[in-house]
Amino acid sequence: MKKYKILFQVILVSAFLFSGCMEDLNVEPIDPNVNTANNVFTDDAAYKQALAKIYASYAISGQEGGGGGNGDIEGIDENFGNYIRQFWGVQELSTDEAIMAWDDATIKDFHWQTWAPNDVFIMAIYSRIFYTISISNEFIRNADARIASASGTFLNDLVAFKAEARFLRALSYWHAIDMFGNVPFVTEEDLPGAFFPERITRDALFNYIEAELIDMEADLVAPVQNEYGRADQGAAWFLLAKLYLNAEVYTGTPKYTEALTYINRVISAGYSIDSDYKRVFSADNFASPEIIFPITFDGQNTQQYGGMTFILHASNGGGMPLNGIDGGWGGIRTIKNFVSKFNVSESDFASNTQYQSNDKRGMFFFDSGSWEWEVTNVGTFTQGIGVTKFKNVTSTGGPAPNAHATFASTDFPMFRLADAYLMYAEAVVRGGGGGDMATALGYVNALRTRAYGNDLGNVTTGDITLSFLLEERARELYWEGHRRTDLIRFGQFTNGTYVWEWKGKVKEGIQTESYRDLYPIPTNDLNANPNLVQNLGY
Q1: How many CB atoms neighbour CB 257 within 10 A?
Q2: How far is Cα 172 from Cα 120, in angstroms, rounded to an integer?
Q3: Residues 6+ apart with CB under 8 A from 95
C-alpha cells in the first residue's frame, strides 16, 4: 500500500487564481462553490490539502476525476490536457523512442517535427506548466502570510510545505526553460489581477531556478525522510543537477562541475539501485529504493485518462499482453531505429512475440504474423514494435494496489538514481571537476550488470564516450520523458547526424531545422501578451 495518500484528498483551488489573463480581475467570485484564498485557507489542515492540489496538478487535470469535464485548463479535452500525458508526448513522440498512430488534431506532427505555433498539444503543455506555477504562487503567498503567526509543529510543517511548493514551481519552470526558452514570468509577488506578465529570457530564468533551488534546500525534508510522493532535498539536488547538466544548452555556459557537485549529493543521499529493473515500472514501484521523485497514480483515487493510464493503454493493442489493463487503445509504439540499440531485429521474433535480449531492459512485442517491422503508414499501430516496459501489475505479476482495470496504479518515475549514475559519467566525460572515470565506469557497469544479470555486458573505460552514453541513456531511460532533452544536449535532435524513421516526415528520416530544438510560444498567448516574443524560426 502506498504510504502517501495526500494526493488523493485534494481540494479545489480554482484556475481563477492564474495571474496572466486579461479577463481575470482581483475580485471575489459570487459563486460560493468557486474556491479562492478567502475560503480555502481556513484552518491549518487546509495548507496540506492545498499543497496536495499542486502535486495533483501533474497527475490529474480536473476537479472531478475520471475526465469529469471540469478541467483545470480550457481549449482542450480534459483527458488530453493532462500534464504528464502532454509532457510525455512532447518529450517522447518528437524522438526516435515513440511514434503515434492516431489522427487526433496535430499529434503526428511531433514525430515528424512539423509542429506549428498554433498546435493544440503545445498549448496544452504550456498551459499546464503555467497552471502549476500559478497555484504554486498562490500557495506560497498564503503560506508566507500564515508563517508569521504559526508556531510549533505546524510552523515547521508550513516551512517545509512552502519549500515543496517552491520546488514544484521550479520543476515546472524547468520544463518551461527546457521546452520554450523565453517565457512569461510570474511569482508570488505578482498578485492575481489584470496585467501582462513580463517576459524572462532563458539565461535569466536559469539563474532564477538555480537560486530558488539553492535557497529552499535547507527548508526541505532530508533525503528519503519525507512521505512517499513528496519532494525532499534529494529531489531538489537532482533538479539542480539536471539544470546544470543542460546549462550549456540553456545559457551557452557549461556547468558540468556544478552538476557533479549535486549528482554526488544525490548518489550519497541514501537511495539505492533497485535489484529488479522491472519493479521500477510496475505497480509496486512505490517500494523501489531507486525512485527519487515520482508522480503518483492510484487506480481508485486518481482516475484520469492521462498520465500512466494514457501511457499503458495507448501503448497496447495488436495482441499485446494486457499487463493489468482492460484493453489497448492502439496508439504509441517504437520504431526499428530504437530497438536496434538493444541489437534487436525482426528475426528475433520469429518464434516468440516477446523476445528477451541479453540486455533485459529491452521490453518489446512484435507478432511476425500480423505486425510489420517497417512503418510505411504512421497511422497503422501494428507497424513498428510494441513496448511493454510499463505495467499495471506488480513486478511479480500480482494485482496492482487499489487495482482498477482502466485506471493505472503505477507511478511515473520522474527522477531516479540510475539517471544520476549516467549523469555522473556524462559530466565527467564532458570535463566536469569533482568526479573521475573509474567511478563513472563503476556506475555504468552497475546498471549494465543489473540489465544483463551478470558482467557479460560490462564495458571498459575506453567505451565511455559521449556517443556511447547517449545510447546507454536510451537503453536505460526510454519512455521516461528524457529523450528529447538528451538528444538536444548531444546535438542530435534536429540537424544532427542521427536521423530515424519518419523524422522530417520522410520515411527514411531527414535532418530538420535547428530552431525546432525549442517549441514555439503558443499563438494564443503570444497574441494576448505584448511582452512576449516568438522563438526564432516560427
Answers
A1: 15
A2: 19
A3: 111, 483, 484, 487, 493, 500
CA separation for the pair 428, 257 (Å, rounded)? 8
Nearest to 295 by CA among 55, 87, 131, 51: 55
Identify the pLDDT of residue 357.
86
- Which amino acid belongs to residue 106? T
Three-state DSSP string of 84-136: HHHHHHHHHHCCCCCEECCCCCCCCHHHHCCCCCCCHHHHHHHHHHHHHHHHH
pLDDT at 68: 67
Of 492, 501, 488, 311, the C-alpha closest to 413 is 311
Between the alpha carbon of residue 242 and those of residues 48, 211, 263, 356, the distances in Å are 28, 14, 9, 32
Which DSSP symbol is given to 462?
Answer: G
| Domain 238-296+411-488 grouped into CATH 1.20.200.10 | no
Instruction: For residue 186, give every residue at least 6 positions away whose Cβ sits within 8 Å of its Cβ, in sequence order, or none.
Output: 19, 20, 130, 133, 134, 137, 197
Residue 368 CB neighbour total at 10 angstroms? 15
Say what angle helices 417-429 and 233-245 make with each other, to 10 degrees.
Answer: 30
- Record the cell numbers describing residue 102, joined without a space: 492516431
Residues 6+ apart with CB under 8 A from 485: 91, 178, 246
What's the rounded Cα separation, in Å, for the pair 237 and 419? 13
Give 461's contacts (C-beta < 8 A, 6+ positions apart): 437, 438, 441
- Model-wide pTM > 0.85: yes
Number of alpha carbons in the 13 Å side-chain half-sphere of residue 176: 31
Residues 6+ apart with CB under 8 A from 417: 266, 267, 271, 272, 273, 290, 291, 292
Low-confidence stretches of the chain (pLDDT < 50) are 1-34
Query: Which residue from 342, 317, 344 is spatially nearest to 328, judged by alpha carbons?
Result: 317
Can you give the residue ranges of every domain in the chain? 238-296+411-488, 306-396
- The CA-atom distances, in angstroms, between 474 and each of 89, 122, 178, 482, 486 are 16, 24, 19, 9, 9
pLDDT at site 194? 78
d(CA 526, CA 523): 5
